[in-house]
């Protein structure tokens, strides 16, 4: 009995340690964002600021064209997600439910695209975009992400589980293929779509490398670059201002996650009607 | 109102011929049941009519017109699927309405139709519900309503009752017979259950391995089977078959046509055997009788025989069937019929 208690408490200690190592950076970020400059450089470090400095957020916002950055981030991420859905849903439907020549090869290409890191393709894409004179627009940050290989793959698996009879019933109900895709398949795939949307949102909202390469003016830069530039704007690092910027960057992700989380588990467990 | 005709139809799946050169006419306004063991091609035929599994060659005619190139939704047919195939994300009303919307039926007409149909199948209270909150029987009704609301000229049903429990199934059989009487349209119903076929059909089309074995009303299928396969497929337990020992001919009799007694019986075909099993079913009792190397099933209203008891059984001449070595029926007008009959006396 005693031995059991020791293991149990060890179990809890381990869990707490894992939890803390994940949560602590967040806590520190939020804490720092509310400290004064003196508190951020004090040793030992401050965990609880004496009085929350909400002014840090104002300072961060006014240190550059923050509204433009935020607007760019929103436009880029939402355009990417919308375009991806428009491309991905019909593509996944075709891969899951149609038989056509070259299907295997095309799907193989999707999988290769899925494994190809952006670092491999960024130079040709940059040159192409520059050639087209698009570097001063948001296009280079949106267009290359039109199709989402991971999304096509996940959604195809999901569509494959939807019984053929439902599609046949819709055909007998005189529904066009277009209607079948958007009115029958898409609503049924909501959990998978929520998962894909979340992954896509997080990776593009947080993307630093791609916009860094593809932009040369503040007008088209997203939030990630704007916040990184807070660090460069002064001689010494104003951690409290940078962290305030980071909080602004992270909050939308948390909100989107909370909206999507209940669908995500479902995405991997199809719940059809028998 | 529509008749359906299959003309020299074949169907291949991955180079394997499932249906070979089949000809069949389904009469207008009749309740036709396609029945057979799984894999016999009955669902394949149904899917050809619906247009969701086109034939490899040959043609399917609806009212004399070839429909091979007409889209499923434009054929005027409706189908009820085995697993119902209800759209899970739509409410009951949206499910029923979907076909009407696609056919551009206006809103007022749509509302009227949906309401009258859901009233008829008893779904009025559930129109706003999602299918996942309904019971199996209610989902079945949604699938039925969805087919009925389109007022099709042909109703196709693919084992629609197989997911229901026995009691509900019996009720639905009666409902479907009544529905057919009321609508008077052509019903094509696929099942592997001979009870469903016998109880509902005007015409039974019995299939095996892609071939039509017999096409006849239930009474004829039961009393005058074309061959051993039909004889054994219809009836529970199936017809008893024994080797006659002449020309490879086999004889058969139904378990329920047997007279059984502890005393010797007067019949053209009699034997004395031992009861090996006894199944009391309520109104009747099934006995398995062992005679020499074979055993026969008999169904009797008498439940007093017990296991290991020796009893006499007899079958009247009009209840005896003979089948040639290829399985086809030998009819009374066959030249050797009397010889086989005599041979059976010495069995």
Please, could you describe this protein's structure?
The complex is a heterodimer of chains A (274) and B (347). Chain A is mostly helical. Chain A has 2 domains: 2-55, no CATH class; 64-267, MetI-like (MetI-like fold), CATH 1.10.3720.10. Helices cover 74% and strands 0% of the residues of chain A. Chain A contains 14 helices and no strands. Chain A has helices at residues 2-33, 37-41, 55-62, 66-97, 103-115, 118-131, 139-142, 149-160, 164-172, 177-188, 190-205, 209-214, 223-233, 239-267. In chain A, helix 11 packs antiparallel against helix 14. The model of chain A has no long low-confidence stretch (mean pLDDT 87). Chain B is α+β, with helices and mostly antiparallel strands and 347 residues long. Chain B folds into 2 domains: 4-223, 3-Layer(aba) Sandwich (Rossmann fold); 237-345, Beta Barrel (OB fold (Dihydrolipoamide Acetyltransferase, E2P)). Chain B contains 9 helices and 19 strands. Chain B has helices at 42-50, 92-102, 107-120, 136-148, 166-183, 194-200, 218-223, 228-233, 337-345; strands at residues 4-13, 16-26, 31-35, 57-62, 65-66, 77-80, 154-158, 186-191, 203-208, 211-216, 240-243, 250-253, 258-261, 269-280, 285-291, 294-300, 310-315, 321-323, 329-330. In chain B, strand 7 (154-158), helix 5 and strand 8 (186-191) form a beta-alpha-beta unit. In chain B, helix 2 (92-102) crosses helix 3 (107-120) and helix 2 packs parallel to helix 4 (136-148). The longest helix of chain B is centred in the middle third of the chain and has 18 residues, at 166-183. The chains are: A mainly alpha (274), B alpha+beta (347). Chain B: Residues 4-234 form the ABC transporter domain. Chain B: Keywords: ATP-binding, Cell membrane, Membrane, Nucleotide-binding, Translocase, Transport. Chain B: This is ABC transporter ATP-binding protein.
């Amino acid at each position: 009995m005693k031995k059991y208690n020791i293991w149990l408490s060890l179990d809890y200690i381990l869990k707490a340690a894992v939890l803390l190592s994940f949560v602590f950076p967040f806590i520190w970020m939020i804490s720092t964002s509310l400290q004064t400059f003196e508190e951020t450089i004090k040793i030992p470090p401050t965990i609880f600021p004496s009085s929350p400095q909400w002014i840090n957020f104002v300072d961060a916002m006014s240190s550059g064209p923050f509204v433009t950055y935020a607007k760019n981030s929103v436009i880029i991420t939402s355009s990417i997600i919308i375009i991806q859905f428009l491309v991905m849903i019909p593509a996944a439907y075709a891969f899951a439910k149609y038989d056509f020549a070259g299907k295997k090869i095309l799907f193989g290409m999707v999988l290769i695209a899925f494994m190809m890191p952006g670092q491999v393709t960024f130079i040709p894409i940059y040159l192409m975009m520059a050639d087209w004179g698009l570097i001063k627009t948001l296009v280079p940050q949106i267009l290359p992400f039109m199709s989402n290989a991971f999304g096509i793959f996940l959604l195809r698996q999901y569509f494959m589980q939807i019984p053929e009879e439902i599609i046949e019933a819709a055909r007998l109900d005189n529904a066009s293929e277009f209607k079948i895709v958007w009115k029958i398949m898409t609503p049924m795939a909501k959990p998978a779509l929520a998962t894909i949307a979340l992954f896509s949102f997080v990776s593009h909202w947080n993307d630093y490398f791609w916009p860094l390469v593809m932009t040369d003016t503040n007008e088209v830069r997203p939030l990630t670059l704007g916040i990184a530039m807070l660090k460069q704007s002064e001689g010494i690092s104003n951690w409290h201002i940078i962290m305030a910027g980071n909080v602004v960057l992270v909050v939308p992700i948390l909100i989107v996650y909370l909206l999507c989380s209940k669908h995500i588990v479902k995405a991997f467990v199809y719940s059809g009607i028998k | 109102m529509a008749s359906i005709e299959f003309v020299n139809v074949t169907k291949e799946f991955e180079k394997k011929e499932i249906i070979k050169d089949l000809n069949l006419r389904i009469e207008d306004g009749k309740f036709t049941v396609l029945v057979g063991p799984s894999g016999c091609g009955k669902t394949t035929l149904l899917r050809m009519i619906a247009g969701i599994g086109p034939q490899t060659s040959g043609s399917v005619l609806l009212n004399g017109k070839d429909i091979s190139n007409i889209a499923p939704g434009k054929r005027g047919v409706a189908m009820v699927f085995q697993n119902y195939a209800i759209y899970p994300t739509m409410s009951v009303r949206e499910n029923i309405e979907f076909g009407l919307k696609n056919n551009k039926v206006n809103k007022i007409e749509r509302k009227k139709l949906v309401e009258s149909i859901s009233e008829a199948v008893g779904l009025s209270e559930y129109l706003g519900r999602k299918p996942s909150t309904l019971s199996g029987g209610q989902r079945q009704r949604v699938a039925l309503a969805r087919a009925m609301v389109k007022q099709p000229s042909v109703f196709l049903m693919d084992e629609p009752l197989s997911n229901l429990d026995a009691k509900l199934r019996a009720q639905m059989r009666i409902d479907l017979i009544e529905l057919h009487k009321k609508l008077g349209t052509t019903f094509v119903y696929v099942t592997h259950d001979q009870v469903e076929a016998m109880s509902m059909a005007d015409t039974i089309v019995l299939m095996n391995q892609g071939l039509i074995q017999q096409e006849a009303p239930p009474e004829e299928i039961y009393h005058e089977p074309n061959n051993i396969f039909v004889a054994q497929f219809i009836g529970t337990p199936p017809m008893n078959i024994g080797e006659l020992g002449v020309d490879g001919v086999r004889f058969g009799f139904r378990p329920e046509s047997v007279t059984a007694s502890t005393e010797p019986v007067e019949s053209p075909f009699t034997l004395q055997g031992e009861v090996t099993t006894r199944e009391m079913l309520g109104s009747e009792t099934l006995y398995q009788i062992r005679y020499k190397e074979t055993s026969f099933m008999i169904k009797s209203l008498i439940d007093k025989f017990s296991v290991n008891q020796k009893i006499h059984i007899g079958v009247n001449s009009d209840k005896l069937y003979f089948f040639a070595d290829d399985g086809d029926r030998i009819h009374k007008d066959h030249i050797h019929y009397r010889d086989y009959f005599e041979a059976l006396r010495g069995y």
